[in-house]
Write a structure and sequence with these properties.
The protein contains four helices and eight strands. By secondary structure, the protein is an alpha/beta fold. Strand 4, helix 3 and strand 5 form a beta-alpha-beta unit. Helix 1 crosses helix 2. It is globular and about 45 Å long. The protein starts with a strand and ends with a strand.
């Protein structure tokens, strides 16, 4: 097994700032827009973007939530190990709001499909967009594409993208791992 650095901490930071600017261009003051990180790893991206928008671009208020999709996945009964759900935390209304779903890696599209299904439990948004840090564009099983993408990666099926976050893993880095 070999691994190479796909993105360093500096490159991740640059990409997050670019994504924050793109969100600002399309949503301005976020009065009618909410950000929802998909549990577990999309929460790191969502928190970082929210911090950048508030601290560096002076957006006064952003509704930020976290969505667990464990039991909405189409494969949750296929494994032998018991799944553990994480907490969903959406303490605001999404009815008629612009929702930006946020995840770290877009691979087959199945997680996003599950997130769209889970989101329906909270109301009917006006619009749903997808922001992903890494887009593995040739691996899709469903016709799902991001509105905002940090970096496109042409990884073949045997390769894995591993995203590490300082808050969870001790450092910010993204690896491409050949199994």
């Amino acid at each position: 097994m070999s691994q190479k650095v796909l993105l360093s901490a500096t490159e991740i930071n640059i990409i997050l700032h670019r994504l924050a600017c793109q969100l600002l261009e399309n949503h301005l003051d976020f009065a009618n827009t909410v950000l929802i990180g998909i549990q577990p790893r999309g929460t790191f991206v969502a928190k970082r973007l929210t911090k950048i928008l508030k601290e560096e671009y002076k957006v006064k208020h952003i509704d930020l939530g976290f969505l667990d999709i464990t039991f909405y996945r189409d494969d949750f009964r296929r494994g032998d190990k018991t799944l553990e759900a994480t907490a969903t935390s959406i303490d605001f209304l999404i009815e008629d709001k612009n929702v930006v779903l946020i995840d770290d890696v877009l691979y087959t599209g199945r997680s996003i499909n599950a997130a769209l299904t889970a989101l329906q439990s909270f109301g009917r948004p006006k619009d749903v967009e997808l922001l992903t840090l890494i887009d593995r564009r040739f691996s899709r099983h469903l016709p799902i594409q991001p509105n905002y993408r940090g970096r496109q990666v042409d990884a073949i099926n045997e390769e894995k993208v591993k995203v590490m976050w300082k808050e969870n893993d001790g450092k910010d880095v993204i690896y491409l791992i050949d199994r």
